[in-house]
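so my prof wants the structure for this chain in the tokens format not the other one, which i didnt know existed until like an hour ago. anyway here's the sequence
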Amino acid sequence: MPEQDFLAGSVILIDKPAEWSSFDVVKKIRNLLRRKQGVKHIKVGHAGTLDPLATGLMILCTGKATREIESYQGMPKEYEATFRLGQTTPSFDLETGVDREFPTGHITEELIRQTLEKFMGESEQVPPVFSAKRLGGKRAYEFARQGKKPDMAPVKIMIHEMELLGYQGHELRLRIRCSKGTYIRALARDLGAALGSGAYLARLRRTAIGQYSVKDALEPGKFEEMLNNL
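here's what i got, hopefully its the right format
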């Protein structure tokens, strides 16, 4: 990709590492481009956040391409997720510690397959309190970290596909293709309850956004190497 494309407007596919926030990714790529292009300012935005503990595909837009961010945000997302059955956490993932234990002896692969079918199609999902949803000018997680439990309005979501990749011990692995606005952490909560147990999201990787695949994405370090070789 010619370097002048970054200033004019381009789409960059980044494979986000674990422990990086989405803002960390944007800041890193923006600084790299500013240094490479020798400019003080360059527009860089992302088309959909990933939680810090998650990895995988982020679409970044630069220059005039930032005008198209909304179109990318509306595309279906695909994830590979690992749910830990038999336990829950307040954040529905590993950001917080385990708060409850549940039985799992009754859970079979057949029960899992039957239960997954119930989640297919359109439904309403209550977002996690530990999320970036805005409530009265604040992020929901700000209330959650203060020990408060604000009411979270349900939102309509669409689950296009759910494929069972594996079930062993207490770990359930799924491939999920879903609409914008779907919280996989909330899906872990709801699936655990539907199985007569509990669950939280142990690992998450976003593998695709629309026709864009993480296979074509670069980790930030590899992107820096590419820039240096231009």
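also thought this was worth mentioning. The chain has two domains: 4-74+214-229, 77-209.
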